[in-house]
Amino acid sequence: AIHAYIAQDNPATALRVAQQILRRSGQIAAFPNSGRRVPDYTRDDVRELIEGNYRIVYRLLADRIDVLAVMHCAQLLPIDLGEL
């Protein structure tokens, strides 16, 4: 959705942003604790990495990592994690 939205105005930028977000997601897979704890939540298992103007919000589980959201940093996170 992010790629499609940006591509309406600038396809080259859309591709670059999508590649950067995917690269950063690879960092999460390799180093799950590299993201900071999300200050909006009091949980240690919910973390985020910032890539440019976007935040990748994810949850650390015992056997996997769930990406909860990829969103613009200007957007507010919902109070309830279930809304992500």
Automatic annotation (TrEMBL):
Keywords: Toxin-antitoxin system. InterPro entries: RelE/ParE_toxin, RelE/ParE_toxin_dom_sf, TA_system_RelE-like_toxin. It holds the Pfam family ParE_toxin. Belongs to the RelE toxin family. This is Plasmid stabilization system protein. It comes from mine drainage metagenome.
